[in-house]
Amino acid sequence: MSAHGQIRTKRLITTVLAALLYGCAGNLPAQQTARPSAAGSQAVTLDRVVAIVNSDLILESDIEAERRFESFQPLGSARVRTRDELINRLIDRALILQQIAMQPEPPVSEAQIDEELMQLRKTIPKCAAYHCETDAGWEKFVREQGLTLPELREHWKLRTEVLRFIEERFRMGIRITDQEIHDYYNKTLIPAYQNQNAKAPPEGAIKDKIQEILLQQQVDKLLDDWLTALRAQGSVRVLKPGEEAP
C-alpha cells in the first residue's frame, strides 16, 4: 500500500468507527463474577458479560479499556462517548474480527507496528508535555493512561489488522468521478465557504481532498450496511444491568 493510501485509511477510521480498533472483545470465561477477598469477608467483582456477539463475549473490562485507548486516537473527537456507544463500537469490532478470522492473512509485521507507534508518539497532542519523543517519556504517558507498552502494542497491532481488512474489502473497488468531485465542490463546498464569508480555493487545488471526502462517505455507507447485515444474520445480545449471561 502506498503512503498516501495508508494516510487515507488512517483518516478513514476516525470517520467510520472512531476508535474502532483499540482493544479487543474479550476472550475471558463467560462469567467471572466474584471471588472471596483476601480477608475472606467480602466478594470482589472481577468482571461481567455485557454483550454476546455470536460466540464472543464483550466484558465490562472491555468498556473500560475502550475508554483508556481513547487517549491514543490522535485525530479522535474530544467528546466523551456514552457507555452504549462504546458497547456498540465493541460489537461492531467483534463482528469484523470474526470475519477476519474466517479470511486469515499474514500477520502485520513488527517493523510496521514499530513505525506506526513511533509516528503516534509525535501526533498525540497530550504527549508533548511528557516528552514522548524519549522512550522514558512515552512509557510514562502510556502508563498514566492505565496501560503497559506490551498492551498498547498488542492493541495497536489489532487496529492495523482491522484497518487492512477494511481497506481491502471496501475501498479498493470505489471510484470517484470528476463529475462527483465537481458537484461536491459547487453544491457543498462553495456554500460552506460562503456561510463563513470566505472565498473557496480553486477546485483544482483541493481536488484530492474532495476525492478523499467522497471516498470516505462511500466506505462509511458500505461498511455500515455490511455491519447491519452481519448483525441481522448472526446473534447479537446486549445484557441489561443485573442480567446474567446464559
The percent range for helix content is 55-70%
Query: Spans of 5+ residues with little confidence (pLDDT < 50)?
Result: 1-45
Q: Indicate the proportion of strand residues.
A: 5-15%
What overall form do the CA principal axes indicate?
globular
**Structural domains: how many:** 1
Count of separate DSSP helical elements: 8
Would you kindly provide a written description of the structure presented here, covering whatever features stand out?
There is one protein chain. The chain is mainly alpha-helical and 246 residues long. It has a single domain, classed as Orthogonal Bundle (Triger factor/SurA peptide-binding fold), CATH 1.10.4030. Helices cover 55% and strands 7% of the residues. The protein is built from 8 helices and 5 strands, in the order H-E-E-E-E-H-H-H-H-H-H-H-E. A 3-stranded antiparallel β-sheet has the order 4-3-5.
Protein topology:
Blueprint: H1 3-16, E1 34-36, E2 43-45, E3 49-53, E4 56-59, H2 60-69, H3 83-102, H4 110-123, H5 135-144, H6 149-171, H7 178-195, H8 207-233, E5 236-238
Antiparallel strand pairs: 1-2, 3-4, 3-5
Helix pairs in contact: 1-8, 2-3, 7-8
